[in-house]
Amino acid sequence: MSTLEIRDLHVSVETKEGPKPILRGVDLTIASGETHAIMGPNGSGKSTLAYSLAGHPKYQITSGTVTLDGEDLLSLSVDERARAGMFLAMQYPVEVPGVSVANFLRTAKTAIDGEAPPVRSWVKEVRGAMDALRMDPTFAERSVNEGFSGGEKKRHEILQMELLKPKFAILDETDSGLDVDALRVVSEGVNRVRSGGEVGVLLITHYTRILRYITPDFVHVFVDGRVAEEGGPELAERLENEGYDRFLPTGSITA
Ligand code: ADP
Ligand code: MG
Ligand code: MG
Fold first, then answer.
1. From the CB of 226, is ligand 1 less than 6 Å away?
2. Does 13 sit in the ligand 1 pocket, CB within 6 Å?
3. Boundaries of every domain in the chain
4. From CA 171, how far away is CA 176, in angstroms rounded?
5. Is ligand 1 within 6 A of the CB of residue 58?
6. Which ligand sits closest to the CA of 45?
7. Going edge to edge, which strands form the sheet with 71-72?
8. What SMART domains does this protein's entry cite (predicted)?
């Protein structure tokens, strides 16, 4: 049983005009086996939260804490965070030309476990996971994210999550750009990982659509860099019907 605890987190982003405060006191606790959805309008700071947890250098933590089972996560390097059990799927994943998906996965697994996985069982596991995500076997030989379609990027993320078996997975807009079939396949993947009851999932999304396939235990509405309201799955339904308008100043535009 693990706990990821975010306490009063304030984050500024580096801009040409200097640091710009984005997160204004985020409080959130996720335990193993729980799925939390963060929903909110565009520009509310959802991706900033994901990048901050990932250790992106552009995002400066100005105050607050993030701990994984009591250990300070923010003092760890990106690699150390992964080894500690954090998995972060970014809204805009980077391309790694010249590195195949197969090599990337094996290298990541080796780095996280501290030893190379046994070849036979690993190959079988990768094939099985790719199969379940309806990915063609030739996909393993392609360069990471190079020329991937939106759907391929998301499947690749879920493939990583299934194989790397993190303690906590942060999925930023995993639903964006997916058609209904891809959304179903990707959601099934997340649900397979969830069904083990061991991973904690933070599902960041603008739209309620993915929550029809992945039922969260908790929903947090994110507005202007902090959690404005919390509830259960019924809150997502309410947002689907009402949108974010009631959380925003009158006259503002919701995108
Ligand atoms: P969301 O993911 O909820 O749409 P973001 O975290 O991407 O929100 O952005 C929150 C706010 O921070 C926005 O106003 C955005 O313009 C600003 N922001 C985020 N990253 C940067 C950056 N690298 N440079 C300048 N502004 C940024
Ligand atoms: Mg956005
Ligand atoms: Mg975003």
1. no
2. yes
3. 3-93+164-247
4. 11
5. yes
6. 1
7. 18-31, 3-15, 59-68, 71-72
8. AAA
